[in-house]
Design goal:
Distance between the termini: 12 Å
Low-confidence stretches: none
Structural class: alpha/beta
Shape: globular
Mean pLDDT: 97
Radius of gyration: 20 Å
Number of strands: 18
Order of helices and strands: EHEEHEEHEHEEHEEHEEEEEHEEEH
């Protein structure tokens, strides 16, 4: 069949690759250029992890991990680096139960062990959890590779090609993976996507010394701080779900107040990182109320909103699922 994908972020390109591999005629329309910085897929890296407190997310991440490795084998390009991840919870019991149910390898570490091995300062926490099968997805490399692999299988990618009305698209099935632009685009066709775009701020920092930097998620204070390796730069850090609602049509800059809040956290918790930000950037989250994804078919429209700021790691699995929806009757 003929499928058109609207939006060439990581989800749209992963879907296009999968559809083209299955022999369908595929066109992708991107309103900007590939690897633009206005949406949700740009930048050096994203956290890859199996570490969730719910089994459903762990199993999806395990499936995605297998598919990431398949894409790496097919393309000859490294897309994920496993430096591990440290989770900081007041009580990790639920997370550990989910690990046991899904067979996730992990270690429980003391604050002293975490300080010695990774340089994270958490003397106020009795135990921390380390998962070795975690680290980062190389974000820009992944977008580029999915695009290359989609083209290799016959997909056509049209840059600076904005779709204003889904009804005008000549295709058997239209897949909408337009990120923060999706709610308004779908609403114009009578499809409600209950998701709110926010503009999040991320800053980059210099490592004071060389060495492996595992990803870190800190949920101690009722907020979620995160840090991860940023190849070629040092460390990337932010405060999850701290951005303001936004209109993605506006190209707004980073929130200086959030940069300061994160820099203070870096100074307290990451003594091996220079807390003076090198630079900051924004990323759009498209948030549902429960942080679950909306992947469903409405007539000839397939909605692909794998979102809420934790979707990137699942991209190849989401692409496979959206391709299944395209083929469903």
């Amino acid at each position: 069949m003929r499928a058109v994908v609207v939006g060439a972020g990581v989800m749209g390109l992963a879907t296009a690759r999968e559809l083209a591999k299955r022999g369908h005629e595929v066109d992708v329309h991107e309103q900007f250029e590939l690897l633009h910085t206005r949406g949700s897929s740009h930048g050096t890296s994203r956290i890859f992890r199996l570490s969730y407190a719910e089994e459903r997310w762990i199993r999806l991440a395990q499936s995605a991990y297998r598919l990431w490795r398949e894409v790496e084998d097919e393309s000859g390009t490294r897309l994920i680096e496993l430096h591990g991840l440290v989770d900081v919870d007041a009580d990790p019991t639920q997370r550990l139960h989910a690990f046991a149910a899904c067979g996730v390898a992990h270690e429980e570490l003391s604050p002293t062990e975490v300080q010695e091995r990774f340089g994270f300062a958490y003397d106020d926490v009795p135990r921390l959890v380390f998962t070795p099968d975690a680290g980062i997805s190389l974000a820009s490399d992944a977008v580029r590779t999915f695009a290359d692999e989609a083209r290799k299988h016959g997909a056509r990618i049209h840059e600076r090609s904005r779709v204003e009305r889904l009804e005008d698209v000549d295709a058997d099935v239209v897949v909408v993976t337009a990120g923060g632009w999706a709610p308004k685009l779908l609403a114009a066709s009578g499809i409600e996507l209950e998701a709110e775009p926010t503009r999040e701020t991320i800053a980059y920092y210099r490592l004071r010394e060389d060495g492996v930097f595992p990803s870190l998620i800190d949920e101690l204070e009722g907020r979620q701080f995160f840090a991860l390796a940023a190849p070629g730069v040092g460390v990337k850090a932010g405060l999850h779900h701290a951005g303001r609602p936004t209109d993605p049509e506006r190209d707004e800059g980073p929130d200086a107040e959030l940069v300061s809040v994160v820099a203070e956290w870096v100074a307290r918790r990451l003594p091996r990182v220079d807390p003076a930000p090198l630079h900051a950037e924004t990323c759009i989250y498209t948030n549902t109320a429960d942080q679950h994804f909306v992947c469903e078919r409405r007539g000839r429209i397939v909605v692909g909103s794998a979102c809420s700021g934790h979707g990137f790691k699942f991209a190849p699995a989401v692409g496979e699922h959206l391709a299944d929806l395209v083929e469903s009757r």
